[in-house]
Amino acid sequence: MAGLIRREDVDAVRDRARIDEIVSAHVTLKSAGVGSLKGLCPFHDERSPSFHVRPGVGRWHCFGCGEGGDVISFVQKIDGLTFTEAVEYLADRVGIQLRYEESGHGGGALRPREEPGRRQRLLEAHRVAAQYFTEQLVGPGAGAARAFLAERSFDRSDAEHFGVGYAPTGWDSLQRHLQGRGFTQAELVASGLMSQGQRGIYDRFRGRLVWPIRDVTGEIVGFGARRLYDEDQGPKYLNTPETSLYKKSNVLYGIDLAKREIAKQKRVVVVEGYTDVMAAHLSGVTTAVATCGTAFGTEHARIVRRLLGDTTAGGGMQLASGTSVGGEVIFTFDGDAAGQKAAVRAFGEDQRFYAQTFVSVERSGMDPCELRMARGPDAVRALVDGRQPLFEFVIRTTLAGFDLDTAEGRVGALRAAAPIVAGIRDAALRPEYARLLAGWIGMDADRVRREVASASRRTTPGPVRTSRPDDARQGAADDAPVVPAMPAPDPRDPVARRERLALVAVLQYPQHVPPVFDTLDEDAFSVPAWRAVHAAVRAAGGAREGAVLGAGRWVEAVVEQAAEPVRGLVTELAVAPLPEDRESVVGGYVAGVVRGLVDLGLTRRIADAKSRLQRLDPSADVAAYQEAFARLLAVEAERRTLREGEIA
Ligand code: ZN
Fold first, then answer.
1. Is residue 84 classed as helix, strand or coil in its secondary structure?
2. From ligand 1's centre to the CA of 63, what distance in Å?
3. Per-residue pLDDT for 458 more than 90?
4. pLDDT 10s digits, 190-240
């Protein structure tokens, strides 16, 4: 198990990975003044761009939804990765070899999972293979593959969109192609693209339709392949075996295409196969994914929850109306029996996810692919829209076995369903479901409540799990408690506006900030939020330190010194546009803004000193009066000096 990534390596990744380049892969950026870019926010729906990136400080911020951070947090958020995963992903891209802190001794260790560059080689082999397969699909040998697609109403452009290809029937077609591109036998075996036989290696996928399986960052890590020919003795579906790239417990087919919509719509639809993902997306259900040859498990849930932005330990929370906070996970099942089995099995396991879980069952037994063919895309969308909460589905499925028109049937149904309600671990949901159950059976609510209560006494549900051991990968960094962010002050308040502008200038152009700024004490800012940012600026060494560090490292240093709720504000200020940022005049502008702020503070202190003077009686306390008067003169002198400096 890898330890924490070394701090200096994280810094190096942050420095080397160009934020504008990384963001550009997801957002079309255009210029928003010198050193600033903007585009449509990928994290909320908007028509005019409020998502800003400032490459010089390495930060992004959306003035629409308030999200913001550095290049690592952008990758984390857009790809639903942990901190460690995001750093590893970026390190791969910029060619930095990460070292990990080993617990127990101080020395750094090389990335322990595989030798340097190996991962890149294996990813490259997959890219080459995918390209090869797609070329084969249009070739003369792929008639059966094209017919398979056409029979399911997928045309050529659909196949291209999903990267579908064809693996020829020969034993070494792909092998020769890859070896021709310089891949070694060892690499081919490690990739999972070849199988090892007694007389050497041979192509794993032969005479099959193949789908590239991508990870959340869009890299191909494996393939799923369907049998096409009757003489093929292999399984109907064959996937890449477990490799260093491909772990079936945490790959989701379609996640690369769906991730942005999942984050946006706060919903994910889990279907059962490759063609179902295709059919769903083509029908407008763009949040569809599928597991590959395995049931949906806790690792899949982890990926999905991160994309849904669900950071709470207990998952979302069910509201009385049936909607849920924290996103919806919708499972589609074809046919009652399959659905029942899957749902009932799920019900017995850990329930932390289930208040958000919904079930869509196609009663006539069609999967989304068949549904699209038979009844069109509207029917696929309707299937998803007709979802039921998992609890409701399980309870109603149980009730379906009883004749509710008879008293005996109702009593039997109550006895069968009450333990299910009693078994819901989220105690807050139980009364709601007891009430619903009464309605579904057609029975007095008190009677149902009593039955549920007595069923609770019979079954002792285990404790609700709140920790997430499967997520504890980068330690505290990923599992940090959610601290409510400090809101930005009212932008209409002119004092708050001036103070804000000064901080924007200090964060973005520390080299132009006049030295007087660093002499300001903790009371210099009047608005609490800006005072907190100023405290972080001071703790990070002031503008003088910023000028030495350079804007990128400087903002990083301030963020680090900032209290948790203030960090978002620092990023926001570091990215905010300045009214004047032309290279030739920005220096003078920044100096002016900062002096203006200092002047404002001095003016406030002069007013305070005058008011104190007025309250003092010179005849009663001569010493106090003289002292107050001297203070007034001193502050006035300070302001005069400042103003003269400005002119000079
Ligand atoms: Zn936004």
1. helix
2. 7
3. no
4. 999 999 888 889 999 999 999 999 998 899 999 999 999 988 888 899 999
Ligand 1 midpoint to CA 571 (Å): 14
DSSP E strand boundaries for 263-353 = 267-271, 288-291, 317-318, 324-325, 328-334
**93-123: burial string, b at 16+ Cβ within 10 Å, e else:** beebebbbbeeeeeeeeebeeeeeebbebbb
Which backbone phi and psi does 6 adopt, to 5 degrees? -60, 140
- What span, in angstroms and rounded, lies between the C-alpha atoms of 127 and 220? 7
The answer to whether 58 and 556 are in contact (CB under 8 A) is: yes
Residue 431 to residue 453: CA distance in whole angstroms? 10
In angstroms, the CA 35 to CA 508 distance is: 10
What is the CA(252)–ligand 1 centre distance, in A? Answer: 26
pLDDT at 483 over 70: no
CB 356 within 8 A of CB 326: yes
> In 332-367, which ranges are continuous DSSP H helix?
336-348
Using a cut of 0.85, tell me whether the model's pTM lies above it.
no
Q: What is the pLDDT of residue 487?
A: 67
For 226-284, how does the pLDDT look when each residue is reduced to its tens digit (9 = 90+)?
A: 999 988 888 899 999 999 899 888 899 999 999 989 988 989 999 989 999 999 999 99
Pairing of strands 237-239, 220-227: antiparallel
Determine the distance separating the centroid of ligand 1 and the alpha carbon of 385, expressed in angstroms: 26
Cβ atoms of 369 and 148 within 8 Å: the answer is: no
| Residue 358 three-state SS | strand
Q: Helix axis angle, 494-508 relative to 542-549, nearest 10°?
A: 40
Structure tokens at 483: 């601290």
How far, in Å, CA of 605 to CA of 599, rounded? 10
CA–CA gap between residue 452 and residue 347 (Å, rounded): 17
Cα(289) to ligand 1 centroid in Å equals: 24
What is the percent of the chain with per-residue pLDDT over 90, rounded to a whole number?
38
Q: What is the CA(75)–ligand 1 centre distance, in A?
A: 15
Distance (angstroms) between ligand 1 centre and the Cα of 229 equals 49
Quote the ligand 1 centre to 411 CA distance (angstroms). Answer: 53
Residue for token digits 């900032």?
A: 562
Q: Residue 46 Cα, ligand 1 centroid: separation in angstroms?
A: 8
The 8-class DSSP code of residue 469 comes to: G
Question: Mean pLDDT across the chain, nearest whole number?
Answer: 83
